[in-house]
Amino acid sequence: MVASADGSIRERVTELTAELVAYRTTADRPEEIEACMDRVAAFFEDAGVPIDRYEDGGVPSLVASLADSSAPEVVFHGHLDVVPAQERLFSPEVRGDRLYGRGAADMKGGLAAMMYVIERIATAERTPSVAMMVVADEERGGTHGARYLLEDVGYDPDFCITGEPNNLDGYMDVINRQKGIVQVSVSATGEPAHAATPEQGENAIEKIMAAYPDLRQVFDDRDGEWGPTLNAGRIRGGEALNQVPAEATLELDVRYPDEETRDEVLYELRQLPDLEVKTMGHGNPVDTDPDEPHARALLEHARSVTDRGREVEFTRKPHTSDLRHFARNDVPGVAFGPEAYGSHEEFEHLLLESLEDYVETLYEFATGGPYG
């Protein structure tokens, strides 16, 4: 039993989630991010869990650790930053068995639940080698959070669990595969001219528009939903409406499965003539072996806790996460969060009835080793 005397698991985690959701932790509000991180730090300090605080590029992070080194056996990972939303979504609301609000799913619900588990583990008879990493820039790539803590500070866990929700069919399924990401700019060069005599110039925007169907063709109809995908996210070009634009740039987000590589994706994009392709960012795909001891143990604990008429399974998700930074540093990991839906959407919500199953699974996993 992991519930504390001052409230049930569901009550405590719901209350903490609602408190965290109320912080407007978008990238343009660093003061809110700092205040929310202070609240997380105070939670661990009150629980008697040692913490180390960090900052890189103006982005705060912390590690709360029950391990005696920077190489814990297991690290829980959570992020407190969220994507922008209407102001009303920062006023959390419980309706029935759901808590609504920005970040309820992605991922302040998972963050609060993991914090609660760490608090309970700290009082367990056997204190395992477990730490928790809390970052604030996952939605912006994780460079100053997870990647910084792994590659510059030097944290080196054996295994990572990020509390991201699966947002998929399948109660409490464990995500062991995620797509990689390549973000690129595709630029075209034309010749400026007066808009009244467009035939005297070459329109760079039109060159981009003409090439786009070919770009789509590279990725369409390949390997179904687990094949590579392409999204045109931004386009820029032109200086004035009455001038033929001399330059245009299209920015693309490409997601690719672990069966492919970044270099293969870039090679295909660069086969199109008269376009310059530059890499803006990249994240590794995740492909954790289902027989990896920690992953297998987590799955078995989830199966023993839940009773929904079907077994918890490993699954895959096209979305990326900070797991890519762990994969980049050869740390296996999975995404495993409480049931939550609508990430980045208006109806984003946390399914409260899943909290007890989730907390119990993590607690039993963390205190039940060994994993080998």
How would you state the average pLDDT, rounded?
A: 93
Largest sheet: 6 strands, mixed
Low-confidence stretches: 1-5
From the alpha carbons, calculate the radius of gyration and give it in angstroms: 23 Å
Q: Find the CATH topology of the largest domain.
A: Aminopeptidase
The fraction of residues in strands falls at: 25-35%
- Structure annotation, total helices: 9
Distance between the termini: 25 Å
Structure report:
- This protein folds into 2 domains: 9-178 and 285-367, Zn peptidases (Aminopeptidase, 3-Layer(aba) Sandwich), CATH 3.40.630.10; 180-283, Alpha-Beta Plaits.
- The protein is elongated, with a radius of gyration of 23 Å.
- Strand 1 and strand 2 (59-65) form a beta hairpin.
- 44% of the residues are buried.
- The protein has 9 helices and 19 strands.
- Helix 1 crosses helix 3, helix 3 (104-121) packs across helix 9 and helix 7 packs across helix 9.
- The protein is of the alpha+beta class and 372 residues long.
- The model is unreliable at 1-5 (pLDDT under 50).
